[in-house]
Amino acid sequence: MPPWERPELGSWLTDPTKLVLYDGLVAYDVDRLSRDYADVGWLRKWAEKNHKKLYIIKDRLRWPDERDGVLWGVAAERAYQERQQTIERITRQLEAMRNAGKLTGRPPFGYTSEGEKYDRRLVPTDEGRMYVPLIFKHVIEGWSLEQVATWLRSEGVTPPLSEGWWAASLGILIRNPTYMGHRCATVIVPPDDAEIQDGKIVRYRYVDRWVQKPRWVYGKTIHRCEPLVSAAVWKQANEAVTNRTKRGYSDPAKRAMLSSVLYCANCPDSPMYKTTPSKKLQATCRYLTVYYRCFGRGSHRQSCGNMVPLDAVNAAVDEIIAATFDVPVMKHEIIYGNEAEIEARVEEIKFQIQQLGSLDLPDEDYDQELARLRAERDRVANLERVPDRVDLVPTGDTYNGVWQQLSTPERGAWLATHGFRVTADKEHVTVSQETGSATLALEEKPSHSRTRMLYLGKCQCGCGIDLYGVNANKKYLNGAHAAKAHRRRKSQAADSELYQGLRHTVCSRVKGPAFPLCDEHMPARGAGLVGANVPGNPRTLKLLIAFRAIQRRVERNSQSDISRAVGHQHDR
Predict the structure, then answer these.
(1) Which of 43, 174, 235, 237 has fewest C-beta within 10 Å?
(2) What is the pLDDT of residues 18-44, one digit of tens each?
(3) Which CB contacts under 8 angstroms, 24+ apart, belong to 297-304?
């Protein structure tokens, strides 16, 4: 890894605010700085550019120093060759151990290593015997990897070399054949293309996608161990993970405007991400409002439930940037003092004093020149020193001007790069930066700018009018068209042969005087049969009650419903 990319050293080499806190780097040997001669050359140029010094204790090297240029190159080449030899030696030793079936590398979760050096083997742990079979079982049952991770965190199970469980780490665990007793070697999948910089591969292309790390697959078995699950269970779990619906590729062009810069105002350092309505909600909801939602922080991802409308927050941030941050864009720049020049001049005079004896001057001239150089050395060393400092200098642009020129997906990353932080809750949005801060109240009723009008077909009353709307259950243009369809269905049902046959059946079963079942003699809708002009025969009374119930259903339902209802009454 290059020095400028190391987690602890990188910021000290690139951050202007840290560069002014020290004078140079000290290492015992060149390989402690880097074992790549290209990186050593970069460090030498970096030291000259930033007025820093490099010291190597073992070889007594320093930089900047023109006399040691060749020695630096030799030391860098020696460190590089030593690195190559070490890599070759270790690779050869590991390959010999793999061919002998010995264990190499760290054991996965649920296993530990036992045995003598160069003859170690994998042995299951008690924790692995308990939880690994349950992990595979839950995956086969349909649990998502995130649900399994949440369950493991609740059980207090911790993975090796990590603080908590994640869906990605569980996916690697499920695909690892070690759990069915076969520890396999990893084989790099040859890429379709590769991007090389400074002799190193920095990106790999597989089909039409570029990635920073090469893809790999499991190869031949290099070590046998006790399995924690059977081969059949391992296969079922892998098929369950492989056949699940993937979320798919996330298009950067569709990224939310405040992605990576918006945080919840109610939770400490909890990010807020865009939530998109499901397809079912998009088809049935009246308004398709997209929200930013608090997602929580840490391994448990506990959210407070804070949700704010995306369009309202974006508009508020746009208004705040235009009103408050129409100021010059500032950047940190190192203003160098004269310390480096003074020290360089003193070192040059010292070197001239050392070389004075080799000039073979007369004693008088030697004494005069030595006195002059010493006086000049003392004068330069006693000059007033101005230390390096970091100042904020304008770039010639304004924050609002650059903001208006950026596209929506680019704005969030730009805000984060320039030190902005946006917090939001249901009532306010705050944009803060070292140059200032501003808060704006959100509207109580966000605008529904994302309403979609869907084509729902023809009006079912028979008028032939096209229906449009956001409610997929809409069948009629309005209430008048619905009433029209209801009257038509009622008329068709009353004139049907089934309806007339039912009236004849009831009349034929009535004993006593003629009782025509017409609308004049039937009880009014909503009224009971008490007091109506009906016979006192209990059997006839039951028939009339059943007929009235069917008559009411006729008024509400279609012809098919009538057929089913009459069949049920005849069975009775």
Answers:
(1) 235
(2) 888 888 889 888 888 877 767 888 888
(3) 297/267, 297/268, 297/269, 297/270, 297/271, 299/153, 299/163, 299/164, 299/165, 300/150, 300/153, 303/267, 303/270, 304/264, 304/266, 304/267, 304/270
